[in-house]
Amino acid sequence: MILATIEPAKPDCAKPRCRHAWWQSLVVVATTCLLASCVTTPLPDLSVDLPAQWRHAPSDAASPTSAPASREWWKAFADPRLDALVDQAIAANLDLGQAQARLRAARVLHAHAGASLRPNLHFRTSEPIDPDASASFLLVGFDSTWELGLFGRSEAIHRLARSDLDTAHADVRLAQVSVTAEVAREWIGLRTAQQRESLLVAIRDARRTHVEKMQLRRKLGLASQQDTSQGEAALAQAEAALAEPRITIQGAAQALAVLLGRSEPDPEWLHMGALPRLGEWHMSAVPADVLRTRPDIARDQAAVLHAAGELGIARADRYPSITIGGSIVWSTSEVEARPTSSNSIAALGPMIDIPLFDWGMRKAQADAKGDLLQAAALAYRKTVLTAVAEVETALGALEQQRLREQANAQAWQALEQVSRHSRQRRQLGLASAVDIAAADIERDQAALQLLDARGARALEYIALGKSLGGAAMGAIEPAAMNANPGRNH
Predict the structure, then answer these.
(1) Which of 6, 116, 223, 437 sees the fewest Cβ atoms within 10 Å?
(2) DSSP state letter for 484
(3) Across 165-174, 203-212, 225-234, 416-425, which has the greatest mean pLDDT?
(4) Average per-residue pLDDT for the chain
(5) The whole model's pTM is what?
(6) CB distance 328 to 168 below 8 Å
(7) Which residues pair with 122 in a beta bridge?
(8) pLDDT digits (tens, 9 = 90+) for 334-357
């Protein structure tokens, strides 16, 4: 430690020597600061080659090109109830609230990131005792230190604070994306299950009618016991199938309540409602947008910055730590209750901490932090590639679900025609009630498959919206090309 001490009681002949020592210390500190200012820790290259367009995006010929881009992708369902649920979840979700609280804390700490590198001032008192225990003193004074943050330490400290803030921002965005996707998923699941219950009730009623007619025909000798038993088994299976959608309805309602921060579901949710529908749509986002909107990518980028900050601290620890320190102390003898002969002393100068015997350990720590920085950069690249793969997978699955829905719609329309013709034949006396019940059952089973396809397509769209992390997607046009199946047509 280089220290220039100033004692007011010294004669004038000592002042030039003190001034000479002070200027020597100043020259040493200035030279060290100049050399240390060149030390920095470069950030790794995080560039990732991305395709210019999505391979599985819908073609422009099959999708509207004039639809405006929207980041509120859930509004594509054109369901005011869903929009309201998302707004309520954004305002009351507990996970999102936690993330927002952590963001506020990170902002406060980031605003004071450089406080450890600013001068501080302390007021202290102490009661030292002479080694011979013949006297004690009361010391009162001020001391101050100012760490210069050389050799990249200041840059590293600010990087750590910035990475914590960026991580908190990413966590908030991640919570928002997850909450909106979960609310939409549970709402679609709830509405799908309600429609499934309605169709399964219709199938059960039709099978009950079929069994009643078969029992009557059995009494008349027009049907066998085997036919009657098969009808009764099918009726029991239809009754048992009702348990699945009812369990799903209750589970989805409870999940929605948790997402909205409520202790119990809203009874209005359990009222029958139509399944929100998707129409033709287009992609306005490009692969590069994923880098700007995916919160997990932003989080990994902040992790790279954090690792770079830790490496900067480890590298700075290998070099001397220079601090400007100063103090002024007054002393009073407690035994004689009088000031000492020299009751005040002031000191000012640089304090230098040079690692010697533990330099090897510090170098090993710096090398390890360098490897961790490389690992963080590799994790970032993997997250980017994984994000692009998720979007491509969701796009491909969404297109396949669209084709599935289209095929099921055609099958349902055909069986709807069969059911209608059966009733016409019944009026002409060419078909029986058993024939009508069988045609209705086949139609409702086709409607059930179409409902499942529409629900699966909606869920794939939700997965796409989540995988894009809020990137702009084209608005959905109302779907009017297919009639609603089942009891709600």
Answers:
(1) 116
(2) P
(3) 165-174
(4) 81
(5) 0.80
(6) no
(7) 143
(8) 555 555 555 778 887 777 777 878
